[in-house]
Amino acid sequence: MKFKVFDSYEELSAYSAELVAGVIREKEDAVLGLATGSSPLGLYEELIKLYEDGNLDFSRIRSINLDEYVGLDGTHDQSYRYFMDINFFNHINIDKKNTFVPNGIAEDLEKGAKEYDELIESLGGVDVQVLGIGPNGHIGFNEPAEQLNLNTHIAELTEETIKANARFFASEKDVPTRAVTMGVGPIMKARKVILIASGENKAWAVKSLVDDLISTTIPATLLKVHPDVTVLLDKAAASLL
Ligand code: F6R
User: How confident is the model at residue 239 (pLDDT cuts 50, 70, 90)?
Assistant: First the structure.
């Protein structure tokens, strides 16, 4: 894993955008594995700027998101589909038909999960996977556990994750307790991984990523065996290193 520490989140974001742009310039129909949440917001802003300046073309790009809350449809303002549309897709020339987010309201969630894996397979896997990291070390919604799933599955969110995500909802009890999430399989098979961590509340998880042995109780530590991971940190996230 390569680590880079930046003085500011803005610099981190600009750098992350250049990494993703590099993949897009090399492969015009690249598959972007995308995350939601605070961490990649700056990346999306920078990619939008590159597009607006005529420096990036998304017309043939495909994207596949990591996760979606169970029970929220794409029009709900806290759904991850909505997040992706308003923070990124609506501002670039990507064809929405080529953007995929798990279906959190499928009648048969298990079937939907299986179909999501088939979709990832049919896209040829992920060229560059963007990840945030949970304060507990989760990636996607692969939460700390004795065992981790390779495939897309329905995850029960931990107390800690529900608390961390409550900031986006009216109250903690409005946070969905389950999510459909990509498993660790496609993440580990992605040709390139960029993990973004910013803020003091990520410092513990980042320290574990660096210092701890590989363990399913800190899912991000699996990335230690991936051949091409770049971890981008701001000073606060790197403060315990
Ligand atoms: C989001 C996701 C999560 C987040 C993580 C960090 O699609 O899969 O793993 O990346 O919870 O969230 P933020 O960036 O909001 O701190």
Answer: very high
